[in-house]
Amino acid sequence: MKLGFVINDISTEKDNYTTLRLARRAIRDGHEVAMIGLDGFIYTSDESMCGLAHRPSRDEYADDAELLADLARPGVERESIAVAELDVLLLRSDPADEIGKRPWAPTSALLFAQLAAQRRVIVLNDPIHLADASNKTYFQGFPAEVRPVTCISYDPKAIRDFVDAHDGSCVIKPLQGSGGRNVFVVSPGDAANINQIIEAVTRDGYAIAQEYLPEAREGDVRMITLNGRPLQVDGRYACFRRRGNGGDARSNISAGGSVEVAEPDERALWLAEMVAPKLIRDGMYLAGLDIVGDKMIEINVDTPGGINMAEDLTGIDFSGAIIADLVRKVQMRDHYKGTLSNVELACL
């Protein structure tokens, strides 16, 4: 299998990213791997597509850090590859990382990904629906029973009114963003600072205000889904709990949170069941469900992470299961000789 990963840039990749874990597992299984940055696509005059890629130089790595060091080794220029010859293109870039310097990059890369899908490359998550899911308004398309009460606005008064309606307790965060950046938990004692909080969050666009869920003090549960369903291998779910660092309300690992083993309870599995139809319909092959108490606070479909954490905590080979599933999809595509659409293959 020829497997491409679309990343922000090799210089911003980190050795604790799920992308590196999946790439290393694929290399170990004998598959060809290429890393393409958001600025690495070329549409040529003969209507073919190329990608400027970083390629591994070996077929075995001791850990993810060793693979990253090899991919980013100095003095090696990117190699031009034919995108149409890839079997699978995994979209693993984070649009939030590009807001400041390269706001054009994520949208442009999605357009190239759509062109790749037209050339029978299996593109995951489905690039057409991923364009619709580029910010957190996508979450509002899921049943109200799974979501906290939410207000999305750029207007400070509308946000303040929402906070007042919830007795001064809520969460305010950017509509576009990840990693826990600019996420504020507002309590009744924060009334004097509410204007500054809203200003900080809306500096780059719309804000989301959500009802505060008291269970958030215990962190959140991240459950990974594959093909729209909870990823399970050898009876274990790819699932873990993230806790904030001391007084920090953010449980994101990139914001200093910690992680521990967790088993999804009956409510968490019910929530996953409720969101599955839309994930499947939209071709969201790999997603991360973030659960607090009896609600889902986010669904991550842009570069969902956590596979490496789930593996390190449990010793279960979740990445191997994902690579094997991709091989199965390629076989199904070839058997059906192009009659299955990308969105059908995505969650087949």
UniProtKB/TrEMBL annotation:
Residues 136-327 form the ATP-grasp domain. Signal peptide: none annotated. Keywords: ATP-binding, Manganese, Nucleotide-binding. Pfam families: GSH-S_ATP, GSH-S_N. One of its GO terms (molecular function) is metal ion binding. InterPro entries: ATP-grasp, ATP_grasp_subdomain_1, GSHS_ATP-bd, GSHS_N, PreATP-grasp_dom_sf. The keyword Nucleotide-binding applies. GO terms for cellular component: cytoplasm. Gene3D superfamilies: 3.40.50.20, ATP-grasp fold, A domain, ATP-grasp fold, B domain. The keyword Manganese applies. Transmembrane segments: none annotated. This is Glutathione synthase.
